[in-house]
Design a protein that fits this description.
Number of helices: 4
Structural class: mainly alpha
Number of strands: 0
Radius of gyration: 21 Å
Order of helices and strands: HHHH
Length: 165
């Protein structure tokens, strides 16, 4: 009746290089950004609606500037992560972009910070994404798949492995 599925043999690995045309990368970045902003907005909805339906609003004011700010930040996050994923295997670039964008949107809509605090939050999210990319790029540069690095500039002595001297 219920068949077990072995996902270890699937070709759809989460940590894989994602090459492709520029329009596909742009579409992916836009989709991830919209998903993150929508998820953040949906989780903050009870704080921005009328008081009769939930808690009183956290702060007065318009929500659109915060949605625009996190849409721009999410697009930059997704673009950076996708650019790194197109070059080296990167673990979960979509999930990272969605989570960072949704968290920023959720916090901003519930709290409504000033411009400087909002800029600091966006800078922190961008820094986290850039560090995620830097770790992947650095690990790949020194990893087994690319043995030609600063510690071994000539590459492997025997590219076929130890079984074929």
């Amino acid at each position: 009746m219920i068949e077990s599925v072995d996902l270890s043999d699937s070709d759809d690995h989460d940590e894989a290089v994602r090459p492709g045309p520029l329009w596909r990368h742009a579409l992916w970045a836009a989709g991830v950004t919209v998903t993150g902003v929508a998820l953040g907005w949906a989780t903050a909805l009870f704080r921005i609606g009328p008081e009769q339906y939930g808690l009183p609003s956290a702060a007065p004011g318009d929500v659109w500037p915060y949605l625009y700010a996190w849409a721009a930040t999410g697009l930059a996050l997704a673009a950076a992560l996708r650019a790194a994923a197109a070059r080296v295997p990167l673990y979960a670039p979509g999930r990272i972009a969605v989570v960072l964008t949704a968290l920023g949107t959720r916090l901003s809509l519930g709290w409504r910070p000033d411009t400087m605090v909002l800029a600091a939050m966006a800078a922190a999210a961008l820094t986290a994404a850039v560090l995620w990319c830097a770790f992947a790029l650095h690990g790949y540069r020194r990893g087994y798949e690319n043995p030609r690095g600063p510690e071994n500039p000539r590459g492997p002595e025997n590219p076929r492995g130890p079984e074929n001297p």
